Amino acid sequence: MSRDAILSAIRRGLRRGPLPADQRAMIEGRLATHPRHLIPARSRLPRAEQVALFIRNVEKEFGTVARVPGAQDVPAAVADYLAAQNLPSRFALAPHPELTGLPWSSRPMLEFEARRAQPSDAVAVQHGFAAIAETGTLMLPSDAARPTTLNILADTGIVVLRASRIVGAYEEAWDLLRAERRDPVTGGFMPRNVMLVTGPSRSADIEQTLELGAHGPRRLHIILLDDDPAVLPAA
């Protein structure tokens, strides 16, 4: 069903015709300008402090972070984490060129397949599009190089994220998505799915007892690639 057909059905249900021209212009103007909502002061920090805030918020929500100086260090960081958690060395990998092009042969014990996740996968390694410092949240839009199943099915999720992709507030992450993504069918920027992930999946719905892994990974580990000179950790 087309967009116009859907909107026409809604109008019929509301027993209302098309909007008057002035109201339509107001709505279209608001959609085009993306006005800012209230942005918390805690995210208005220098770059290094934004990254530190992001890490603190990830850890507060039961996630873990390992910082690496270069892309060539990512395979070792993955291997070290899997060994420390006594996890299998086999994993599903997002078929993103920044991940498939890493020197995985430097860690020959690691085994992976670049594909969507399957229910049998214990570990998935995803490519991080962006992250929000104010809450320690990852933005993971779906596309062919970032299958959404990698965010949900595996018991352990590992996300490789560039420090340069950490922003202060949610609005800035949406700015990146608008600026960098165009759908060839609709011409818009929205993918089919955008997941905002803050820590491992968890729930306290039953007897107010916190249970990790309720609706997705019970472990979330972020490998943070320090690619921004402004946010390099102190020596």
From TrEMBL:
Gene3D superfamilies named in the record: NagB/RpiA/CoA transferase-like
Pfam families reported in the protein's UniProt record: LUD_dom
Residues covered by the LUD domain: 54-225
Organism domain of life: Bacteria
PANTHER family in alphabetical order: LACTATE UTILIZATION PROTEIN C
Protein name: L-lactate dehydrogenase complex protein LldG
Organism: Neoroseomonas alkaliterrae
The organism's taxonomic lineage, starting at the top: Bacteria, Pseudomonadati, Pseudomonadota, Alphaproteobacteria, Acetobacterales
